[in-house]
Specification:
Helix content of chain B: over 70%
Largest sheet of chain B: none
Order of helices and strands of chain B: HHHHHHHHHH
Structural class of chain B: mainly alpha
Number of strands of chain B: 0
Strand order of the largest sheet of chain A: 6-7-8-3-9-10
CATH topology of chain B: ABC transporter involved in vitamin B12 uptake, BtuC
CATH superfamily of chain B: ABC transporter involved in vitamin B12 uptake, BtuC
Distance between the termini of chain A: 35 Å
Radius of gyration of chain A: 20 Å
Oligomer: heterodimer
Number of domains of chain B: 1
Chain lengths: 287, 262
């Protein structure tokens, strides 16, 4: 493995993923993944289901050990109690019957890992209220969190992750299952957080389009391999064809991007706007 | 009769508090399996001539550790079911060897709330305080792992360790309460009041308090009516639990102006 020349900006990066490879159950899930994220940058992790997005997040969070390579968070090897990273997982368990308000979920982000009964109610309440204001969620602060809409729940979870004042926010498919209006609102909120609070946002998605207006850079992941850079650098036929190991075309239609695979037979769309009838990105190869 | 009231009160406080977390975590099956499986341990204890409570404790703790350990490798419900059938099977075996004492063991199924000896009150109170203290220590990680286990892991909280710790609290609660109210009653007291409280209030703190109050009301009412009518306490506790939950659902559905989800 050849080591690239050190980059002057490497020391300032909030996240530096260098040559990470992961084997799970005899299968290579990630291979030589390398990219870095600077403070306050908005970065998309784009790829289809099963491409390795969640595994990469788990490596960054320290929940999954990598077979090769290293991950530096804020210039240091990451550890499991790293408060620099805030995390919004894809899977959460919110039952409508749970006696749990939006503000309770946010408060758990503050000190949910600590033992004992919480003290200092006034101070906690103030911190939770100002966090709810920051994500425009104050009006449903006292609603049962399980009864909120998908977009409202995402706001609550973002507040939950932000209240511990992280410098890097990881979000695993936060736009999945949101309608288009809520999708745009969540993206705008995240862009504002990145800009105003200088928090680096790293968000995974299977469709690049909702993120196009706000993304500084993207990491495209396919079959465990990644390419990173600006949208113009990465979303190109040569780059994506190399990643997928087959010919890929990039179509730009009305400001939207379609990645289409296959030279023979009917083309299969590798990603497209959600809820379309097109073949999903996971089954992109031509038949 | 005074002993009955004291014992029933202690049991209701423990069941109401532990039950809140049982319902929150969707752990009703584990809360069913641990006391019922522990019943097999009591049968074993009677067979070798030691205090049934020791047998209850050993089986309850063993079951909790078994469910926690197996559950981390595979499906939690399957692990729970296997622990339950193993303990019940052993119980059946022990009972077949000790026919003459079977009555004493069977009484554990329904408890002897109307005949609690004074010297059992202190151990019950001690175990109860231990349960509440453990819940207070685990409070926040229990809440966090209930909704987002991955976030908890990323923040250095071992979700599996918390789960096993919680199952041990359930085991402790079962050990202390089963001799008093019996296996069936303990299970109904952990689920009914907590589920009712959860649908009536949104705040977790209020829900815990309401769950304890409802458990107290249920037990006091059941003991009083049972004393007057000479019908089993378990019948009244089970019925009150189900009816209060049903009423709470109807009330919240009407308040929201739509039908409650099933």
């Amino acid at each position: 493995m050849n080591v690239p020349a050190p980059d002057p900006s490497a020391d300032d990066a909030i996240l530096n993923v260098d040559g990470v490879g992961v084997w799970l159950a005899g299968r290579e899930v990630l291979r030589d993944v390398r990219f870095r994220i600077m403070p306050g940058e908005f970065t998309g992790l784009i790829g289809s289901n099963g491409a390795g997005k969640t595994t990469l997040f788990r490596v960054i969070l320290g929940l999954q050990t990598s077979s090769t390579g290293s991950v530096l968070v804020g210039g240091r090897p990451r550890n499991r109690r790293n408060p620099i990273i805030g995390y919004v997982p894809q899977k959460i368990f919110l039952d409508p019957d749970m006696p749990l308000r939006a503000r309770d979920v946010v408060a758990l982000g503050l000190d949910g890992h600590r033992l004992g009964v919480p003290l200092g109610w006034g101070r906690r309440r103030k911190a939770v209220d100002s966090m709810l204001d920051a994500v425009d969620a104050r009006r449903f602060a006292d609603a049962r969190v399980g009864n909120l809409s998908g977009g409202e729940q995402q706001r609550v979870l973002i507040a939950h992750a932000l209240i511990s004042r992280p410098r890097l926010l990881l979000l695993d498919e936060p736009l999945a299952n949101l309608d288009i209006g809520a999708e745009g609102e969540v993206v705008a909120l995240l862009a504002r957080i990145a800009r105003e609070q200088r928090i680096a946002v790293f968000i995974s998605a299977h469709d690049v389009n909702p993120l196009l207006p706000v993304m500084d850079r993207l990491v495209y992941i396919a079959a465990g391999k990644t390419a990173s850079g600006t949208t113009a650098e990465v979303i190109r036929p040569e780059v994506l064809s190399a990643l997928y190991g087959q010919h890929v075309d990039v179509l730009r239609v009305h400001g939207r991007i379609l990645v289409v695979a296959g030279t023979e037979g009917p083309p299969a769309v590798m990603f497209e706007q959600p809820n379309s009838a097109a073949v999903g990105p996971g089954i992109a190869s031509p038949r | 009769m005074v002993n009955t009231w004291i014992a029933a009160t202690l049991v209701a406080v423990i069941a109401g508090a532990v039950g809140f977390f049982v319902v929150l975590r969707g752990a009703a099956f584990a809360a069913h399996a641990i006391p019922h499986g522990a019943f097999g341990g009591a049968a074993g204890a009677v067979l070798i001539g030691v205090n049934p409570i020791a047998g209850l404790g050993v089986f309850a703790v063993g079951g909790a550790l078994g469910i926690g350990w197996l559950g981390r490798r595979g499906r939690h419900d399957v692990a729970t079911a296997l622990a339950l059938v193993l303990m019940l099977g052993l119980g059946a075996l022990f009972l077949s060897f000790s026919v003459e004492y079977a009555a004493a063991v069977y009484s554990l199924l329904f408890g002897e709330v109307l005949g609690v000896p004074s010297d059992e009150l202190l151990p019950i109170a001690g175990l109860g305080i231990a349960c509440i203290a453990a819940l207070a220590v685990l409070y926040r990680p229990l809440m966090l792992t209930s909704i987002a286990p991955e976030v908890a892991e990323a923040r250095g909280v071992g979700a599996q360790r918390i789960e096993t710790g919680f199952l041990l609290v359930v085991a402790l609660a079962a050990t202390m309460t089963v001799p008093v109210v019996g296996v069936l009653l303990m299970f109904s007291l952990m689920i009914g009041p907590a589920a009712t409280a959860g649908s009536l209030t949104r705040s977790p703190r209020n829900a815990i308090a309401l769950s304890v109050l409802l458990a107290l009301a249920t037990v006091w009412l059941a003991v009083a009516v049972s004393y007057l009518t000479n019908l089993p306490v378990g019948f009244f506790v089970g019925t009150l639990g189900a009816v209060s939950y049903g009423c709470a659902r109807i009330w919240t559905a009407r308040r929201r102006g739509r039908t409650a989800p099933a």
